[in-house]
């Protein structure tokens, strides 16, 4: 018999043996599951694949989020490249398909951090992960009726931000700078986005205490610098000198507004924004923007991955944690010109090294449903 | 006999009337739009507002002119978003590397950017012609490659160009209009010169009007196509320079929205997607129509949530009024 055929038969034998072992293991596993009943978590995973699923890196905000995820992976002694990126490009269908694909590839040995792109998509994603025995932590999007504690340990946590309060704070700073009178315009995010709605509501809340300030107009600028530039130009035509203050839904919008004003030679218009991007913080230090709000996306991105990972590896047991450790608000830091320099030194010049096992230290309390 | 002659004469007169009408229809649409917005809000007609519209329109005009050449050839180029992003980022990096002010060697970044744009267009054209991939698909794919390239180069960051001299494109005004408007005007004239006074320009029409005929006349159609895409790429890069000049930021997102804006503008201006008809003046009018609609809707205070819908309807109306659809038997 030729060696080739001998080897072939040998290999087939081993394959068959492995197959039998695997089947027995599988049956045993199923029996064990049956014995302990559904809902009992599987034993902790070893060395799970760590993945972040998000829109894309073009957006500075998501770029910060993912850099946090990379920093966490590096803190485990792995290289940046060990983090698997699942990029949904704004498609919920792709988001879910990617998750299912990686679950199949890793056989559920997965620690997933994810923004599911829209709220309804969170349920199928979480169900798929829990069904395969993986662990998931979500950021930003989920429906109000979906809760981590309904999934035992596998749906680890959800973090979001409430923007209404901080946006109201920046609005008050703006309205005070306007001397409590005149006209304000608001340039918002994509009209249907939750943060866009909350940030406009923050302005409206503040306006109740300033009867002499008129909200001249609120238009969506889609989080986009160029669009904001055009909308602000058109506002200048429509309202001209009536505009004495501008409330922007985020920093990228503020950049477009500043340039539209610059084109007209207007240098001292009071403006506030949101997000605390490095460039915006510099503009706050220069008093071109009066205030912005930092939500620490770097920490948010890192801690979301860390929660999923540490739950997966059995470092802590999510089902033993109180509800406010499973659904909580992320941090918000208000930055004004007087804080900007210190803030820049602490957070931007050198990114702080976070303790990625201090899961809830910087967070902001349990999520409240209206 | 006499009856036949009369009817023939009538048809002749009607045809001339229609031709003139079709030629000037886009401009009429533009004037009517301006009239409507001015009636609803007199401030729309101010010089300062026209300056604002032109500032917003200048980068898009350059991109639209680039794609006009390609559309005249009967092809389409959808790579503008990627090309604009790559050119913007390449310009910003070169500009800062050479010293960060136009007063130094950094001016070299300007011609380099034009070359980068032309090179991307050239590659685009080669892929289309040599690999025989439809221009629609080849250019769309190249656009994605460009966006990815810009992304990898910047790592998702935005690059600020603070040089006062370069930003004078926006801040310096002559007769109430900033310099970038004049720069766009100069490139419009260059494009018009290419279109009417060069062999290449005439060849675009030959290819778009009837490719078989052009081939039979001994024209190297493939060469014309590749040159067309390279020229388009160069105009995209001028658009990128003006876009950076307007906002002072170069990033991957610099190219966003240019595809919809430029293709819409070209079609609304009366350049036919099936090739051979139209030109850069049509595109100028088309770009102005799109930006007048955008500006006018905010100026008259139309709520944000109806603006997109109204924009769509107005674009369809503008296409109906400004393109000659009578001579074609089918649309695909």
TrEMBL record, chain A:
Its main location: other. Residues 50-314 form the Periplasmic binding protein domain. Transmembrane segments: none annotated. The keyword GTP-binding does not apply. Keywords: Signal. It comes from the Bacteria. Pfam families: Peripla_BP_4. Belongs to the bacterial solute-binding protein 2 family. This is Sugar ABC transporter substrate-binding protein. The lineage of its organism: Bacteria, Pseudomonadati, Pseudomonadota, Alphaproteobacteria, Hyphomicrobiales.
